[in-house]
Structure formats: C-alpha cells, structure tokens
Amino acid sequence: MRKSDFHFDLPAALVAQEPPPQRGASRLLFLERAAGAVGDHVFADLPQLLRPGDLLVVNDTRVIPARLYGVKASGGRIELLVERVLDERRFLAQCRSSKPLRIGQLLHLDEGVVVRMVKHQDGFCELEIEAGGAVLEVLDRIGHMPLPPYIGRSDRPSDRERYQTVYASRPGAVAAPTAGLHFDAAMIERLRVLGVETVAVTLHVGAGTFQPVRVDDLRMHRMHQERFEISVQAAARINTAKSACRRVIAVGTTVVRALESAAQALEPSEGVTQSGIAGGMVAPCSGETSIFIYPGYRFRAVDGLITNFHLPESTLLMLVCAFAGTDQVLAAYRHAVGHGYRFFSYGDAMLIASGSCTVPSKSPP
C-alpha cells in the first residue's frame, strides 16, 4: 500500500473550527460495511442504527491542558506541547523555539514556573520543573488546551469542556478521542434504555496522532507509542459480548487500537503486562502500543466503528479503510465532501457497521 492511495480532495471550508452549539447536534453518515451503502443522518438517529445487545466501547482518557508558553533567559519565546507526564516533576514535550534547547537550560513559563531542560529523547525534550509545583498542577493552572494544528485559532476557556468527552476521567491525553465528543448524558441514557451497553477502556492519545506519514511505502512507517489499559472487568464484558456474538462497536480509532492491541496480547509480549486472561478475544492488559492498522490487517475484536472524518493520507484514515475497505471509505468521504459534512476533531461523525459479528476462536490466534 502507498500513502498516495489514501488521498482525497478536501475543501478548507469543511474543516470544522468550532464545535456544534450542543453535543450531539452533528450529522452522522452511516456506512453499511458489507454492502458499502451510505445514508445521511443526524447523530440523534444513532439509537435507530444500533440494536439491543450492542456493546459500545469508549475511551475514558481525559485531555490535559498540555500547551505551555514561556521564554528563555535570552528572551526568546518558547512553546511546549507536553507529550507525556513522567512523574510529579518531569515530562516529555515537543519544543518549539528559534534554536534547539541545551541541556541544563532554564525556561521561564507563566506565573513564575521554571523548568529545566534535562535531555533530548526520541525527538522530544525531557524537562523537569524547578519551581512552580507538580506537573499536573502546573498544567491545570497555566496550560492551554492542545487544539489540533488544523484548528486555526487559539484555545478558549470553553474548549476545556468541549474538547473533552462527558465520560473523560483519566488524565493523560494530549488530543481528544474525538468520536466521543458527540455523546452527551441524554444520548448515553437513551442507548441504555434501548439495551445498548457501554464499557470504558483507556488509551492516552499522544501528539504523534497528528504526525504526517512521511514515506509513501506504508511498510516503512513507524507509529508513535501510546499508553493503554484494559481492565479485567472491561475485558470480561467485551469477551462476554463476543462469545454471545453481540456486536462490539468502538467509539473512535483510539478504542480500535486499544482493543486490537489487547487482542494481540493473548500471548505475553514485550511492553505489555498481562493481568489475567478472561477468555475470548481480548486480554486484560496495560502497556504501550504502536500498532499500525492499514488495509490487509485482520480485525479480531471490533465489529463496528463510530469515528470522525480524518485527514487525507493520515494513519487514522488508513485504519478506517482497513476496517471497511479503501474504495468504500473513499467513496463515502467523497459523498461527505459533496454533502458538506464537517471534518476532523470538531466535525461530524460516521458510523460503520454491519449486521454480523466476529466470533472468537477457541484458542488464541
């Protein structure tokens, strides 16, 4: 597969700069996975497109205010985008400044916060807070919400709530699992009454989710690592649904990556710690995943997907194409462009599903 296979023309006017006035006031494109047929809906129609017994799997990560601004001792401006909190005082960040930071260099942030450059690590800077408090306290106090680069405005106070799912509970992401932004408490309750269950897993989305694919041969691309966790209880509920041939529907590509990583973790592997096997397709586990899903991948755990519309030639689009077929997905995207759907994080949603479910094998694949 080539990166260029996933190109489509997207007018800049369709890139959403603002969330809809209310959660759930978005449009929803339904793609029937087997036949490739599309249907135009609004997100409020979701209960009509699901069925009793479906299991929605959501990502309960919480976006941290990960963007920091400051100056160097020389007066030069510096921008930090936190990638990962290492402990109470240390964090990894992408650093933007006129010159590369030197080991030991001090940076002065807002409200008297001082951080020291510790070392360079895999394209990131490791920094330590010298004065001002613990990392999460500093971020909560002076950090800005890390809106994606295709949103051409600065963050506002309202983004602290809207660039966050209503079920976000575990701080650690620097980008939102945006498919979940459409859900409000009323929709979750409507689905519960219908008989649609919900269970949460965690994948802390990293800034690397916005990194472009720089090689045309997809076999040469390497994904960034992201932390994920699937509890014993969550795995048990997912496996129960799988064994009963009830559909498991991922809310977002981040959930797909977590579930498929856990499905591959039925045998111990480096970077993944098992906490017991509940049986079925998904192992309870925690660790790091750099799984790259593109066409040709064999899905083990996921039967349906709710997702936003993604960038041309992005790894997220490649994952969606792997799930529903490149030709079908690109045709659906052309339909979305032609009908004025809003794209990316604050944009509209897409549901991909079919009537069937995948049945777990009797032994690990």
Structure write-up:
This protein is an alpha+beta fold. The chain folds into two domains: 3-63 and 160-353, 3-Layer(aba) Sandwich (QueA-like), CATH 3.40.1780; 67-142, QueA-like (Thrombin, subunit H), CATH 2.40.10.240. It contains eight helices and 18 strands. Strands 2-1-18-17-14-3-12-13-16-15 form a ten-stranded mixed β-sheet. Strand 9 and strand 10 (124-131) form a beta hairpin. The longest helix has 13 residues, at 326-338. The two termini are 24 Å apart. 42% of the residues are buried. The model is unreliable at 267-280 (pLDDT under 50).
How would you summarize the topology of this molecule?
Elements: E1 27-32, E2 38-42, H1 46-49, E3 55-59, E4 61-63, E5 67-72, E6 77-85, E7 90-96, E8 106-109, E9 114-121, E10 124-131, H2 135-142, H3 159-162, E11 170-173, H4 185-194, E12 197-203, E13 226-230, H5 232-243, E14 248-251, H6 253-264, E15 272-274, E16 285-289, E17 304-308, H7 315-324, H8 326-338, E18 349-353
Parallel strand pairs: 1-18, 3-12, 3-14, 4-11, 14-17
Antiparallel strand pairs: 1-2, 5-6, 5-8, 6-7, 7-10, 8-9, 9-10, 12-13, 13-16, 15-16, 17-18
Helix pairs in contact: 7-8
Distance between the termini: 24 Å
**What count of structural domains?**
2
Q: What Rg do the Cα atoms give?
A: 21 Å
The beta-strand count equals: 18
Strand-pairing-aware structural class: alpha+beta
Largest sheet: 10 strands, mixed
The CATH topology label of the largest domain is QueA-like
Helix segment count? Answer: 8
Unreliable stretches (pLDDT < 50, length at least 5) are: 267-280
Order the strands across the largest sheet as they lie in space.
Answer: 2-1-18-17-14-3-12-13-16-15
Helix content: 10-25%
**Any guess at the CATH architecture of the largest domain?**
3-Layer(aba) Sandwich
Q: Overall pLDDT, averaged?
A: 91
